[in-house]
Amino acid sequence: MSEKPRRGLFAQSTARHTGPGAGATPTTAAVNGNPSIEIKGFMTGFSLLRWLRLHGIDLLTMVAMGAIGLGVYEADPAPSRNFPVFNIDGSIAYPEFAYPLRKNIIPIWLAALLAFICPFVFFVLFQIRLRSIELLLGTTMGLLESLITAAVFQVFHKWLIGGLRPHFLGESDVCKPDVSTLTPNGVGFRQIMYNRSICTGDENDINDSLESWMSGHSTAAFAGFVYLFFYFNAQLKVMADHRPALPRHIQSTASHAHSLASLPWLERYWKMILTIAPILGASLIAASLTVDEFHNWYDCLGGAVTGTFCAIIAYRKNFAALWDFRFNHILLPRSTSIFHRHAKDGELATSRFGYVPQEALVQRPVASEGGWRRDWGVAGAPNDASALMV
């Protein structure tokens, strides 16, 4: 089997591939029978107007969600929390809330920017091989859906639930409690509980320090970087049916199998490192908040769970699988929407994905080993431990 000829980023290939069965996505050249799949250039067949009509509702919804999130973020904290300052014996009740105010190691705007820019840079770089603006836009939309949804989720928690930041009670920084008012104004058992009325600090600083739960840094970092983790795993096929990145002549020639032991670099451990690197980045951003005393550990954990949850849903909403290595790189099709009600010539009348073998050839991943960028497909039920190359 000969290799495909190399081509430029915007060039159109003349290579055509066929696969058994039906059910190809709208990117195929045929719909029924044995579809003929044509690999095209970056902009070939793309219509911005059609794309906007297909995804207009999603774009408008994201704008609306962003506006809601911004409005809630600017609102004052809803609950009025009671908290102790001193124990009955005169000691500090909660030393964990008495740290001095420090600057963020990573500001919130930078955390949010990194959560978008870092994945987007890799989406663009991978287009050197993928050559599909529709795939680039679809992948980026999924990332934005993850980030925006997670942000709105966490700002509602900040507004309605909140909590004390570790530097809340700082006498020279945030609350600056007026000790002379403590005894007559207390509530609860032995009047040791107080509210923000004892604070003499800046109103905005007090509001911010009452919104510790949950961490916006942590939420944004995990929403963006967990999405990137799934993208790397799908495109590089780290968890697949082969050991990553063996040269083609070794993959296809059994007589060379003995050489693997003497060539450890061929295993390309770097693909695994690259795949888990986003998780390292997200965890470092979240953990830094316990170093600069802006969040409690449970604030960071709550944000991490929320961000991860949103990333999982956003990725699976846009791609055919999370863990099934045969289909997790394939962007799900969309042929109709409220602004594009009827599929036109060359488009499928349905936006459902078929999960049939040749679908793995319609959109190819970045990885080339294991036959992924050749005229091969995969067969077998979704989530099978093994798959047949056809």
From TrEMBL:
Family matches, as SMART domains: acidPPc (SM00014)
GO biological process: phospholipid dephosphorylation; phospholipid metabolic process
TM region positions: 52-73, 106-128, 135-156, 213-234, 269-290, 296-315
One matching Pfam family: PAP2
Compartments where located: Membrane
GO molecular function terms noted in the UniProt entry: phosphatidate phosphatase activity
Domain of life: Eukaryota
Keywords: Membrane, Transmembrane, Transmembrane helix
Key word Transmembrane present: yes
Keyword Metal-binding included in the entry's annotation: no
Region (Disordered): 1-29
Residues in Phosphatidic acid phosphatase type 2/haloperoxidase domain copies: 141-315
GO cellular component, as recorded: membrane
Signal peptide: none
Membrane topology designation: Multi-pass membrane protein
Primary location recorded for the protein, binned into one broad class: membrane
Gene3D superfamilies: Phosphatidic acid phosphatase type 2/haloperoxidase
Family assignment from sequence similarity: Belongs to the PA-phosphatase related phosphoesterase family.
Protein name: Phosphatidic acid phosphatase type 2/haloperoxidase domain-containing protein
Biological source species: Saitozyma podzolica
